[in-house]
Design a protein that fits this description.
Layout lengths: L2 H17 L16 H17 L12 H5 L4 H25 L9 H13 L1 H26 L4 H26 L7 H29 L3 H28 L12
Helix pairs in contact: 1-4, 1-7, 2-4, 2-8, 4-7, 5-6, 6-7, 6-8, 6-9, 7-9, 8-9
The structure holds fe (ii) ion (2 copies).
Length: 256
């Protein structure tokens, strides 16, 4: 392990450690201003996210995940990443309980998601998970924007999850930028298309809940587009910066 890798590992270990500080538990017993219709539409969405965002198999599941996890530091950092995902599931489960709902143990969309991740390999799985985090962050941001003032507990939960997911997206961007890969037009086109597909999949299942709070279809797709665009632009810049410092980097970071 060289000095650059040590610094990289320490930086992300510190990030995950620091991120566990100052986490205030949402006020699950606080009164809500959400209407019964809004709660009725929100509950299935929260229950599905409880299962999909850190519930179910909360780890890399691709048949060839070993090749990724065997890279230096990969297992340690993946453990820290998924530990935060499991916390999202706990928070969402408490939100479901707050509104008198019940957790679910399976859903067709999550079953397909897991099967595809398992079969298509770790490279595809990592890309799918990054895209899921980008589009899920938009979901939580819209829930916070439109439902936060009506429900303090939901606002607090969203802020915690957004804080974590923003870190996860930055972690993956950093990892990808240091991989030495190129992120050209073809890569960006495919990435955007996959992001659009991931966003549409999310909206099919959860659009009803966010629309009940006041969100719009057009707003969701605008935010998805903006988030994807921002990710690609900043990834390319980060990769260029890394390339210019390449002489100091003796080994690439974990990559898919
Ligand atoms: Fe998450
Ligand atoms: Fe995440």
């Amino acid at each position: 392990m060289n000095l650059t890798q040590n610094r990289w590992l320490d930086r992300w270990k510190n990030h995950f450690r620091n991120n566990q500080r100052d986490r205030v538990e949402p006020m699950w017993d606080a009164p809500t201003k959400l209407t019964s219709d809004q709660i009725e539409k929100l509950l299935p969405s929260l229950a599905q996210f409880e299962l999909g965002d850190g519930g179910g198999p909360c780890y890399l599941t691709a048949w060839d995940r070993g090749k990724f996890l065997s890279q230096p530091h990969a297992r340690e950092l993946v453990d820290l990443w998924f530990k935060e995902e499991a916390e999202h599931s706990r928070l969402l489960g408490d939100a479901v309980k707050r509104f008198g709902g019940e957790s679910i143990e399976s859903h067709w969309s999550f079953s397909i998601f897991c099967l595809v991740r398992k079969v298509l390999g770790v490279s595809f799985e990592l890309r799918t998970l990054i895209l899921t985090e980008i589009v899920s962050n938009v979901y939580y941001q819209m829930m916070l924007k439109h439902g936060g003032e009506k429900d303090a507990a939901i606002a607090q939960m969203c802020r915690l999850v957004i804080r974590d997911e923003t870190g996860h997206i930055a972690f993956h961007k950093d990892r990808m930028a240091r991989s030495g890969r190129k992120f050209g037009m073809i890569w960006a086109g495919i990435f955007n298309l996959m992001g659009l597909a991931a966003g549409t999949m999310l909206w099919v299942n959860h659009g009803k809940a966010i629309r009940a709070l006041g969100g719009k279809n057009s707003e969701f797709y605008q935010e998805i587009w903006h988030a994807m665009d921002h990710f690609i632009i900043t990834l390319r810049k980060h990769a260029r910066d890394e390339k210019s410092n390449r002489n100091e980097n003796l080994q690439p970071m974990p990559q898919s």
